[in-house]
Design a protein that fits this description.
CATH architecture of the largest domain: 2-Layer Sandwich
CATH superfamily of the largest domain: TonB
CATH topology of the largest domain: TolA/TonB C-terminal domain
Number of domains: 2
Low-confidence stretches: 1-36, 230-240
Distance between the termini: 57 Å
Length: 240
């Protein structure tokens, strides 16, 4: 009797998951049928594809400074279900760095379509909330208080700049190790964005510091990008 109950329980648990995956696959196929190469799924639909989801670690330095909030991340999922690209849309640098490190390791079920597994993009939100018993213990402006205490990062080594280079302004998320973890455009419709991102990954930085502790932080920089000669195109970020 117990074995029969266990089999029924297992089948009843698997049914919602199977239905959810079928629904997500149907939506993906519907989007592909409309002729989109890289289609968009909202977070609710994209979550149905998630196979492996590592939760971001709440940074202790963020807790100490009462930093909480939501991080929005633009995610591009490759055909095999791995995260091909993830870029912060908005969020505090402490929380953004933790979110990116987790999301880039997520794994999705490949979507199905008549033309084969497609890539898709979505925007995921990661929420960080503190458990505070007494609201009076929470500072009025914790982010502003922290900003006044942080010494921003600095560029130590960058590529050379020529007279023909186009300057692309990026907001770089510099890690506590002095590396460019992410970069997003400061202005909309930024040309040569992917080329600028590749260049800034090769730069070295002095990380931001909160007292003696290195911490992740944003830095706005102008990245010189050489224009491509006529008839040539830039390489895809993944080498294709």
């Amino acid at each position: 009797m117990a074995r029969v109950f266990q089999r029924r329980l297992a089948s009843s648990t698997a049914l919602p998951l199977a239905v959810g995956l079928w629904l997500a696959t149907f939506l993906a196929a519907e989007a592909i049928a409309s002729g989109q190469d890289l289609f968009f799924l909202d977070a609710k639909r994209a979550t149905k594809f998630l196979m492996k989801r590592e939760r971001p670690v709440y940074p202790p330095v963020a807790k100490l400074n009462y930093i909480q909030g939501v991080v929005r991340v633009q995610v591009v999922v490759a055909k095999d279900g791995h995260v091909r690209a993830a870029h912060v849309v908005r969020g505090h640098p402490f929380l953004a760095a933790a979110s990116l490190k987790a999301i880039r390791g997520w794994l999705f079920y490949p979507a199905k379509a008549r033309a084969g597994p497609p890539e898709f993009q979505t925007v995921m939100e990661v929420r960080f909330s503190l458990r505070i018993k007494k609201l009076e213990q929470l500072p009025l402006r914790p982010e502003q208080d922290l900003t006044r205490q942080v010494r921003p990062p600095e560029v130590l080594k960058r590529s050379g700049r020529s007279s023909t280079a186009t300057l692309v302004r990026l907001r770089v998320l510099v890690t506590s190790e002095g590396q460019a973890l992410d970069a997003r455009p400061v202005a909309d419709n930024t040309p040569l964005l992917e080329e600028a991102r590749q260049i800034v990954r090769g730069w070295t930085f002095r990380p931001a510091h909160w007292g003696a502790l290195p911490v992740p932080w944003y830095l706005d920089v102008d990245v010189p990008v050489e224009p491509w000669p006529a008839g040539q195109t830039a390489a895809d970020p993944d080498g294709r």
